[in-house]
Amino acid sequence: MEVSGKVIVVQPLQTGEGRNGQWKKQEYVIEYDYNSQYPRKMMFNLWADKIDQYQIQEGQSIRVSFDIDCREYNGRWWNDIRAWKIESDDGSAPAATSFNQASPAVISPVSPIDETSDLPF
Length: 121
Prior knowledge:
The chain is mainly beta and 121 residues long.
């Protein structure tokens, strides 16, 4: 799914320790459909390296690609809106990144296709 809008809140970074090691998560509120009388808001989150990759700031106009999931904890159900791609609202380039824009991108070579594997990737 996808929604475009303006970031109105950047929540504090959350960190913790789980059975698979350390984790970090950050939540953001985006206001969309702001041309209507009653603009809508949605909170989404980014996990781990995606937080540093996109460096989302309040006031940015972005397009968020996300998945919606639901899980149960202690008899209550919680929605989880997890973003997997962020772009500037015009689609021209990703939102601000932590990469140095002055240095050229390094592209690693693609390994040859293994014809013996039955995996689709």
